[in-house]
Each structure stands twice: as C-alpha cells, then as structure tokens.
Write a structure and sequence with these properties.
The protein is mostly helical. The protein folds into two domains: about 90 residues, Rna Polymerase Sigma Factor, Chain: A, CATH 1.10.1740.10; about 90 residues, Winged helix-like DNA-binding domain superfamily/Winged helix DNA-binding domain (Arc Repressor Mutant, subunit A, Orthogonal Bundle). Helix content is about 70%, strand content about 0%. It contains nine helices and no strands. α2 packs across α3, α3 packs across α4 and α5 packs across α6. It is elongated and about 65 Å long.
Length: about 190
C-alpha cells in the first residue's frame, strides 16, 4: 500500500537518517515534481539528472529544517526552484568578450568581415571566434546555436534531445541569436 501524504515527513526523517529505502521512496514520489520544476526553468535534459541529485542532496541535508505545518511537496518545490534559479544566475554571470581578449587572427577575421573581403581562408580562426562568443552566452543558448547553426540539425531533432516543445525552442533560438548579436556588437564597439 502506498504511503499516505502524512507519511512523507516520516520518509524524509528516515532518509535524513541514511535509510536508503526511505530515500529511494521519497525520490520516487517527489521526483516527477522536481523534474517538472527543473525542465520548467530551461534546463537541458542531460543536465536534469545532475540538478535533481543536487536538489535531493539539499533536501536530505536540510531535513531538520522542515516544518511539518506545511506540505512536504511545497518545501521540496521551494528548494528545487531556488536551486534552479541559483544555477541560472551562475550561468548568466558569464564574462563579456572584449577586443583585447581576441587573438590577432580573430581580430583579423572581424576586420576582414567588416571590409567584406574573402574570409574563406580564415575558417579555423572564424570558428574559434564564434566559440569564444558562444562562451559568453548561457550554456543552453550556446548549445542551441551550435546545434541549429553550426551542426545544421533540425528543429525537431533539437526539441527531442532537449525535451522542449517547438514553440519554446523557436523562442529560445530567437533570444539566443539576439544575445549573440549583442555580444558581437559589444565586441566590435570595444575595438580600437
């Protein structure tokens, strides 16, 4: 017989006391809720498992701070939301790329691009420059742009791998392109 909702705090207490069966049962019961929260915060599917482990580690570690006057699901959801938001903040704190950060070859690629000269012989330098610009973006944006623009994968393939619907993916792609353009404009305005 499945545990009643009032047994959830008992499961948490037993899991905090290193009862593996209780921990598994708690993860099984609350895993779908935590996964929905993680995916709702724009996390890629392959990052989901790591983030879920972090969240449940925090849940078990801070079990003593759980107050039984509120549902356990709400408390766990709060921990999950805060963990996801902290991850997003961490990934947004990406350094901006300036002209002086570029190698002379990468600077030449941008100079030649501005003068509309043939840059086909500078492919490796151009790719290195693109990768440096992508590194200034949040990881999900950089991954999406690499998949669609560089690897020329289909939108359906990317949606399937990321676990996103097509509309969300189109919106993310539009925003990622805009962020990349802003990074390039910032880079060009920092040139001498």
């Amino acid at each position: 017989m499945p545990d009643a909702p009032e047994d959830m705090p008992d499961l948490l207490a037993r899991a905090a006391a290193r009862d593996e069966g209780a921990a598994r049962a708690l993860v099984e019961k609350l895993g779908p809720l935590v996964q929905r929260i993680i995916l709702g915060h724009g996390t890629l599917r392959h990052e989901c498992d790591d983030l879920m482990q972090d969240i449940f580690f925090k849940v078990f570690r801070s079990a003593a701070s759980y107050r039984t006057d509120s549902p356990l699901e709400h408390w766990v959801a709060t921990i999950a939301k805060r963990t996801c938001l902290n991850r997003l903040r961490h990934h947004r704190a990406r350094p901006e790329l300036t002209w002086s950060d570029l190698t002379p070859e990468q600077q030449a690629v941008l100079d030649e691009d501005r003068s509309h000269e043939d840059t086909s012989h500078k492919g490796e330098d151009a790719l290195a420059l693109i990768e440096r610009l992508l590194a200034t973006l949040p990881p999900a944006d950089a991954w999406l742009l690499r998949a669609i623009e560089l690897e020329e994968r289909t939108l359906a393939d990317v949606c399937s791998e990321a676990g996103w619907n097509a509309t969300l993916t189109r919106v993310r792609l539009f925003r990622a392109r805009r962020r990349l353009k802003q990074a390039l404009i910032h880079l060009e305005t920092s040139s001498p």
